From TrEMBL:
<feature type="transmembrane region" description="Helical">
    <location>
        <begin position="143"/>
        <end position="169"/>
    </location>
</feature>
<feature type="transmembrane region" description="Helical">
    <location>
        <begin position="103"/>
        <end position="122"/>
    </location>
</feature>
<keyword id="KW-1133">Transmembrane helix</keyword>
<feature type="transmembrane region" description="Helical">
    <location>
        <begin position="51"/>
        <end position="69"/>
    </location>
</feature>
<feature type="transmembrane region" description="Helical">
    <location>
        <begin position="12"/>
        <end position="30"/>
    </location>
</feature>
<feature type="transmembrane region" description="Helical">
    <location>
        <begin position="189"/>
        <end position="206"/>
    </location>
</feature>
<protein>
    <submittedName>
        <fullName>Fatty acid desaturase</fullName>
    </submittedName>
</protein>
<keyword id="KW-0812">Transmembrane</keyword>
<keyword id="KW-0472">Membrane</keyword>
Length: 302
């Protein structure tokens, strides 16, 4: 379906915004499929099919981490959700105070993580020194976070950096006579990469922004009691999040369910969500705790 939308855009039948919106939705579904694959829900006993599926969903979503490295971070996330060494969630801005900086780097796994990596590694070392984290586990988390970006994640982000910088420079040149613009060779490269940028990268940028915005605010951070699943997440389905939910397959509606029932497919979570939400309310799971935006995702506090 994504290829069909790409072809329609390439032929001039579908506008660019329609392509970006359509593929962002489809790639949001693929993110949920990848998430289930990371938990070995599909083809666990057929490694060839399983790994081909993982590779495929990664190649059409190249702004994300290598899923084999992400598996390390994600399993650790389930075990230590909301702690200082929950590398997966901290990598998507969870726990940071809301600011223009956090907003700009919400979808960015390269520059955004470069800006936070020293603080993250410092916290990890402190947790090792306190005995809260094994040294070998810390080393594995660091290596997985770094090598998970190579090569496609970094390359895809660099292409987008050049693409948006080129748009800005051309605007400044046309509007204000700004003299510095990219060379003809870079302009040619961008033109040659146009199908990749519009069919894959821009839809994934939209999808990734929406996913990171939702996930980083439905997960709690910093003062979560270790192992207390009630404090790890909330259900975030308030009406104004609908545009964000649309491009991450309504992640805010169902992800809290996943923390309680891990090995359940994403579509079953949606089928059972109404009943699951009733039970979760009865046991104190929060719904639409919007104070988390003010509290930098802390569970406790006014």
């Amino acid at each position: 379906m994504s290829g069909v939308l790409g072809w329609l855009w390439y032929e001039g039948t579908l506008p660019a915004w329609g392509l970006i919106v359509g593929n962002a939705f489809l790639f949001g579904v693929l993110h949920e499929l990848e998430h289930d694959l990371i938990h070995f829900i599909y083809f666990k006993n057929n490694k060839i099919v399983h790994n081909i599926m993982l590779l495929t969903v990664w190649l059409v979503r190249p702004l994300t981490l290598n899923p084999w490295f992400r598996r390390v971070l994600h399993f650790h996330h389930h075990k230590f959700s909301g702690t200082l060494h929950d590398v997966e969630e901290r990598g998507v801005t969870n726990g940071e105070k809301w600011s223009l900086k956090r907003l700009l780097f919400t979808p960015d796994l390269v520059i955004g993580n470069i800006l936070r990596v020293f603080g993250l590694f410092r916290d990890i070392k402190r947790e090792v020194d306190k005995g809260n984290l094994k040294f070998q586990t810390a080393k594995k988390l660091k290596l997985s976070g770094v090598f998970g970006l190579i090569p496609f994640t970094i390359l895809s982000h660099v292409i987008l950096y050049v693409f948006f910088t080129n748009i800005l420079l051309n605007f400044l040149h046309e509007a204000y006579g700004f003299t510095w613009v990219f060379s003809d060779s870079i302009q040619y490269m961008l033109e040659w990469l146009n199908p990749v940028i519009y069919i894959i990268l821009l839809p994934n940028l939209l999808r990734q922004f929406c996913l990171h915005f939702i996930t980083s605010n439905l997960h709690y951070f910093g003062d979560v009691e270790q192992g207390n699943v009630i404090e790890q997440t909330q259900v975030l389905n308030v009406w104004w999040t609908f545009p964000f939910q649309l491009f991450c397959f309504f992640f805010g509606w169902t992800h809290a369910i996943h923390h309680f029932v891990v090995n359940e497919t994403f579509y079953l979570r949606h089928i059972a969500r109404k009943k699951a939400h009733e039970i979760m309310r009865q046991h104190g799971v929060r719904f639409n705790d919007l104070g988390t935006f003010r509290r930098a995702n802390r569970y406790h506090g006014a």
